[in-house]
Amino acid sequence: MGGILLFTFLGCLALGVPIAFSIAIAGTVVLIAGDVNLLIVVQRLFAATDSFSLVAVPFFILAGDLLARGEMSKTLVSFAEACLGKMKGGLSAVSVLASMFFAAISGSGAATTAAVGSSMIPELEKRGYEVDRSAALIASGGCIGVVIPPSVPMVLYAVIAEQSVTRLFKNGFFPGFMMGGILIAIALYQANKLNYPDGKAFSFENLKATFKKAVWALIMPLIILGGIFSGYFTPSEAAGVAVIYSMIASMFIYRDLTLKELGKIMLQSGKTSAIIMIIIACSGVFGWALANWKIPEAIAQMVLAVSTNKYIILMLISVLILIAGVFMETSSAIILLTPVFLPLIKMLGVDLIHFGLIFTVGIAIGMITPPVAIDLFVASSVTGMPIERIAKKVIPYLIGLIIVFLIYVYLPLFIPAIII
């Protein structure tokens, strides 16, 4: 049954069938082969989406889209630059810092890349930075958008693995800061090597002025994450608060959002949310087929027959996650592969929160690995440059992110206190 499931799924993908329908068809074919009542298909389609936690997904997507196109993102960039002051290649570091700021309020890699790219690229070009290298850096910074909470992939993983969204959010900062740190280090090394210009001299007055403009954007993650961690509201309620706050700030404080534009943004966000929800619904059929024939457990036993060494198996899983990120969109990979990996992870005794973060970081790196590299496509649309040019310049940042990923795979195993 596992073979039928896999070959049907891959066959549908090869024929160009959308991934959601490929998942549903593969699951349905296995049910027919197993002579199972097909009413299960309808039941699982509805049951898979029947979760209060999933309410957070469309709201976080909408909040990210609202923030990506407005004045809020520009004020964050200005504040990040004021913080760093005079430094050779400082604007490169500002790009990453701005990505980290934006990650804390958007939950989306594409939104982070679009917001920071549209604000930073013209300024970087004006100051003599190579546009393709800058676009590669900003696209790489977009990967942090789904690691530093709030994070849509973390919500999806939490629902599938039946884990705490709050705990995942609490633990997302550490790998996110590690990713930001390595990107800044590589960017500054390249800046010195290529003799990029110094940044603007540090000025307390400029810091104060940019902080006043950015304060409304900076307050947003404090309200959202502070509310979640303190228990005042759930992650799903926090997502709703994020939307209301971003709408109020954009329309009445920064005054750069009209009702007409709001309608367009909501329509686009609705389309994105619908795609994810259809994938989740169809994965219900796929997941039921996996569980009914105990395919994940069989895979776990096969892997354990090769090696019982936890560290070797984690390395194999990590490589599979990175490969999945090359060919699959972030949400699709998490929805599809989480049920497959979970039995093996449980047998290894690895903390499921730790694994959720491994999965999120690993699959986020796929946002800059063609052919399915959403952040590169966004950077290409912002700059007008061919994606091939940007992809070549992204290699040093990709290597850095993979190094951070592998460090995080093993670090909590030796220092368990890192996972809270």
In terms of topology, how is this protein built?
Elements: H1 2-14, H2 19-33, H3 39-48, H4 56-68, H5 71-84, H6 90-106, H7 109-126, H8 131-142, H9 152-161, H10 165-193, H11 204-230, H12 235-253, H13 259-292, H14 295-306, H15 310-327, H16 330-348, H17 352-365, H18 374-383, H19 387-393, H20 395-414
Helix pairs in contact: 1-2, 2-13, 3-13, 4-7, 4-12, 4-13, 5-6, 5-11, 6-7, 6-8, 6-10, 7-8, 7-18, 8-18, 8-19, 9-16, 9-17, 10-17, 10-20, 11-12, 13-16, 14-16, 15-16, 15-17, 16-17, 17-20
SS field, number of helical segments:
20
Q: What is the number of domains?
A: 1
* Secondary-structure element order, N to C: HHHHHHHHHHHHHHHHHHHH
Strand content: under 5%
Query: Rg from C-alpha positions?
Result: 22 Å
Q: What characterizes the major β-sheet?
A: none
Roughly how many Å apart are the termini?
39 Å
